[in-house]
Write a structure and sequence with these properties.
Order of helices and strands: HHEHEHHHHHHEEEEEHEHHHHHHHHH
Number of helices: 19
Strand order of the largest sheet: 1-8-2-3-4-5
Strand content: 5-15%
Number of strands: 8
Helix content: 40-55%
Structural class: alpha+beta
């Protein structure tokens, strides 16, 4: 079976966030490979699917001090999966029918399902043209059919597998082959059993031997152990006045709790689309604690932490960059205003903090207004924000101008530090992506082959010319003395 997964992976090694181009018709399909629970991997996946202005960050705590400043749109929870049971009534919610939800029908596709279940329930996020069309096409489908649409989508499979290790992609292909062979063997087993039964004249069933019982018990333990080693991704998102748990292995969205009236806001970061208030984290926090205690261990008393939590947030580089650009314009407006005041025109620079004054050139890079107007802006309401801040500065009293200038410089120092950190993190994520998706197997095969051709492989492996393990001289002499005695 000739699949295009490896070709897709090779073509995407140069960029971890490049948008996925529309592939040719894929009539064969293919598996989804395992991907890591890493914020850089998930951010790349989101951007490859077409979503803009968002990223994923790892949360190390769910208390308000760790989440409020991030203003998360949704959460992705990775945990060691165990079979969970719910009553059918838990999924019979009229509001759940309005939630976009897809069942997971393909192994190891839970990461893409969790991301899509979150993104497609956030109208304030720019999900891109490809996902907008996909959402519109699947709006009237059942969760099972939506899951089938994801499984059969070459674009989503290509975006997912482009972030997997080549060994994991080969493992996914191998898993399909093994599953197919096992299914064929299972289909032939009943026929053999019938033939064996007919050949025996005695209808009495023989009791299983002790050895068979031990083997059966070991097989069941091994099966349970394999089940425990399976990790799974689920999503949490506020939508339609409630907070939902979206698990692709369950029959539908599971209500976590209702949002307070004050937690439903009609404001948005772009001034047009509604988004929930940060108070939705207060609703989901108890459910997360229960999930962590039940499936992952709390980390207390020496227990292992077997879960991770990612948050879908606004792009932190874009947010810090916009803030820095606004601060650049603020300081120009403040300096122009200070220069228009006769009593401050000549000596206002001597009145400000000299340490801050010396840092201005390093913070802002440029200090002329012509260069400042050419900076990049990501927010759609950047111009309106600038106008509001300019009006606020023009209405300031003379006594407030110098403290405002000093405050502006301090805030700019923090914003510039954040911008530099995000650029450093992006470079590190890209480096890790290249290392992760590079296929080292051809190199090792060629290296071992070259050693064999040069006659050096036996030396490194301590083998003789016949391929047998060489005996150490000390051990050989000891054996000879024992024989002589």
């Amino acid at each position: 079976m000739d699949l295009d997964i490896d070709n897709d992976q090779d073509s995407d090694q140069n960029s971890s966030t490049a948008p996925v181009s529309r592939p040719s018709h894929d009539l064969v399909g293919g598996p989804f490979a395992v991907i890591e629970s890493d914020p850089g991997v998930f951010t790349s996946l989101v951007r490859r699917l077409g979503a803009k202005h968002v990223q994923l960050v790892e949360l190390y705590d769910i208390e308000p001090w760790a989440t409020d400043h991030l203003k998360p749109h949704g959460l992705i929870f990775c945990f060691m999966w165990h079979k969970d049971t719910h009553r059918p009534a838990d999924f019979q919610d009229a509001a759940a029918e309005r939630v976009w939800f897809a069942n997971q029908l393909s192994d190891d596709a839970c990461a893409t399902h969790a991301i899509l279940n979150v993104l497609l329930n956030c109208p304030h996020i720019d999900i891109g043209e490809e996902l907008r069309v996909f959402k519109a096409d699947t709006e009237q489908m059942s969760p099972v059919m939506r899951g089938l649409a994801i499984t059969n989508s070459p674009i989503m499979r290509q975006a997912h597998n482009s972030l997997a290790r080549p060994a994991d992609i080969r493992g996914a292909l191998n898993s399909i082959a093994i599953t197919t062979l096992n299914a064929q063997k299972k289909a032939k087993t009943p026929l053999k059993q019938k033939q064996t039964t007919k050949s025996k004249p005695d209808n009495k069933q023989s009791k299983p031997t002790k050895k068979a019982k031990v083997a059966e018990k070991a097989a069941s333990v091994e099966e349970e152990g394999g089940e425990e080693a399976t990790y799974h991704f689920i999503g949490y998102v506020p939508a339609f006045g409630k907070v939902w748990e979206l698990d692709g292995l369950k029959s539908g969205p599971l209500e976590v709790g209702e949002l307070h009236i004050a937690a439903i806001s009609t404001s948005a970061n772009d001034g047009s689309s509604p988004r929930p208030n940060d108070d939705w984290m207060d609703v989901v926090r108890p459910a997360l604690r229960m999930k962590m205690d039940k499936y992952g261990g709390s980390g207390d008393e020496g227990t292992n932490i077997r879960f991770s939590l990612l948050a879908v947030v606004d792009d932190m580089y874009e947010r810090a960059s916009d803030e820095l650009e606004l601060l650049k314009r603020d300081i120009m407006t403040l300096e122009r205003r200070l220069g228009d005041i006769p009593e401050l025109r000549e000596n206002w620079r001597a009145m400000v903090d000299q340490d801050l004054s010396g840092s201005v050139l390093n913070i802002f890079d440029v200090v002329n207004e012509e260069s400042l107007t050419k900076g990049n802006a990501f927010a759609s309401n950047f111009s309106s924000q600038r106008m509001e801040r300019d009006v606020k500065i023009m209405n300031m009293s003379v006594e407030d101008l110098i403290p405002a200038w000093e405050s502006c410089v301090k805030n700019a120092m923090r914003a510039k530090t954040t911008v530099d950190e995000e650029l450093t993190n992006a470079m590190a994520f890209n480096t890790e992506h290249v290392k992760r998706t590079f296929d080292y197997e051809p190199f090792f095969k060629g290296f071992i082959k070259a050693l064999q051709e040069e006659g050096l492989l036996e030396t490194f492996l301590e083998l003789d010319k016949g391929g047998r393990k060489k005996r150490k001289k000390g051990n050989a002499c000891k054996k000879d003395r024992e024989i002589e005695e």
